[in-house]
Amino acid sequence: MEFVFIIAVVILIIWLITSSRSDSKKTKPRVLGNPSQNIKETRDAAASKHSLSKPSLSRPSSDVTSSIAPITTTKASVSVELHEQATELTTAKQTNPKTHTTAVNKPTPIIESAHSATHSEDDFATFNIFESTEPQNANIKSTRKAQWLDKKKETIIHKRKLRGFIYLGEKMESLRGYDSEPALLNPILPASTPLGHQLGYYTDDSLGYWPSYNRLSRQCRGAYLDWLATDRSAANTPVGFVFLYFYGLERFVIENGQVDKVGDEQFEDIFYEVLRLHKVFISNRSFAGYSANFLEFMYLLKPELFKSKKHILPKTRHSLLFKLRLSEQVVATERVSDELALEWIKNTDQYNLKTAARRCDVEFDSLFKLYYKQKFPEGMQVKVNKTKLNAEYFAASGGIPSVKILLDGLPDPSILKAPIKKLIPIADMVTEELASYSRYLAKTNTSKDDLAALILLPRAIANSQPSPLIEKFKTWAQTIILEHDGVTNVADFWLQTDLPAPKAINKKEGELIYNLASFADIGIAPDLRYHHTKPKLDGKLVLFYPGHGEEFVPSYAFNQVGVALRLGAMVANIDGIVDESESSELEKLIAHDEKLTDTEKRSLKAYLTWRLVTPSGNTGLKNRLNNLGVKEIEFVKRFILSIALADGNVDNKEVKQIEKLYTNLGLNKESVTSDIHQLTTSSHQPALSNQNSSEFSLDETILALHESQTTEAKNMLEQIFISGEDESDYIEVSELTNEVDGLDLAHSQLFEKLCAKAQWGREEVAQMCSELKLMVDGAIETINDWSFDLVDAPVIEDDGDMYIDEEIVEEIREL
Predict the structure, then answer these.
(1) Ramachandran region of residue 445, left (φ > 0), alpha (ψ -120 to 50) or beta?
(2) In this structure, which of 15, 261, 427, 809 has its CB flanked by the most CB atoms within 10 Å?
(3) Residue extents of the structural domains in the chain
(4) Cis peptide before 546, with omega less than 30 degrees from 0?
(5) Is the distance from CB of 527 to CB of 606 less than 8 angstroms?
């Protein structure tokens, strides 16, 4: 009986032990945090569609957002107080974590995070760990629990020597409390033999959306280890490798940022390593955004340690540091400086910077601050609001929950809409002024140092950074105006640009000539915009000062007199010699017209000078006159004679000149005498001006055969003598095909098909790609890279379904 009793007790003890272990294993580690708050599982829930952290880029990422209920845990969470002037951190363990606040006189930032819910086992694995300064070859037994290898340590895994900044071990749960830590290097997992990276790194689908070392294929795992064995700077590095390595750096800082036993040196080493990675892989917008945000997070976590590094923090959208600075300034002054106003318009979700603002960021910044100061000399007033500042850091790693940054007592003015509504008009105005400059820079083989770029800069900022080339041109132009009455050769003008001589003055060259002259406040004739004709490469130009100005709009009188000057110059040039009296009479047409402004008179005088030194081509006129009816021909003849006889003199020499003009225009020269007689004696026409008067106006006294015909006469003149004269000579050079469309035929066709609607199912896109013999992921990445090159933003968002950003499509179309 005793024996039976002993056996029963033993069985009971075994059962109790077994039950205890089983319960222990069933208790899953949980994420630590504030139980009154839900945990956001998102990369950057507040990111706008133009955010650098947007997941539709070429790195494995996700934009899936979900909320999970908080889970209680027996482990303690740690809240850390970050006093702005303090040099030490106070840690407080809490068995039931709640939002930690402090009773201090000034607002105190609080950062809440959670420890890893890992657990260790008693068995062992074997791998090498040694100080990099004194390598050891002997194997060391290490527990399966993960270890962090800092900068000074190295290890050998699968015949590859790896330096620090890595987690090594067999067991380590993510900070979410479930699944394995993505960055953990498990030496037990198989990997391919070392191959190096000369021919590029192997990747496959196992790299995934959120990469994890334990889910990589054998070959991909080997390639990743190959990369870790290098200096981790190769240009051909798959971005998934960079992120996977970055995950470990993120985890160490978030998990140990409030642990006093971890020395500052380790955090400084990680700071500089992330800064290095940011610089090396900055071309990847996604990683550039995440790494910049993380460096900012490290600054907020340890402000005293990184105080001297503040100036080297990369700029980032949705800046945590910006919100803190804005809050502090509003509390202190209730005003916003130009620098913070600029940051605000860049960080808000209520406004998206357009292409010109993103491409020309330096110029946008300068012009925005300039106009902001003009509108708000003392800074925009913003009152302290009631909403408290509560920011979050969203890690790149899928194994790390969002980290709340509670800045206790500070308001959050960044959420206010009224101030943004005041900043948006300024941003829009600046963007519009930079549009032409931006479009030029979007073309291939262009630079901000090009003359064509300099002259497209808004005057407000161009004057603050004068160009030696522009100053040289101004000096030359003033000399031409003073010493040569403004007359110069087109070829000599072009020499001032320091550009190769063109084969002809087409639209592109013509615009450069007009823009350069306008930029220097020099007027030019002919100016196609106002004189309806263009210069020729072997022809002349006439310069005048001051020029037309930015606000110049020619009046009706300007166009009337311009037509008269053209016909007058044709008459004066009939015999190839322009008499001084003829030019003097034509100049009076300008001087005596009181409807003309001073700028219009300067422009028309230069235009007349150009007409008198440039042989007139009558071919176009002759062809157009051949298509006119009898009524229109009679009107043209009367108009010509009215100009030719404006001085009241009718002698045989003048008649001969008019006959030549008739002949050149395809009119019957035999009718000149009778036409003159009819004009001078007609009761329907007003008397010619006095012999000593040259006043001339193409209003009712000349234009109207009858008052009701005034508009008809004006339209007829513009149709015959203005429209199409030289504009048709321009060779329109299409720049879209070569300079904007940077896709091959297959990707171009896919892009055009995708633009048909805003959302596509992945199967639909796969079908289109299959027809074009393209891989879905590669095609989307190619198109998004192309889009980034053009407008600094992706055009396709891959979130299971494909979303087409129609605003970005429109911006690309405008290029």
Answers:
(1) left
(2) 427
(3) 455-544, 556-729, 736-814
(4) yes
(5) no
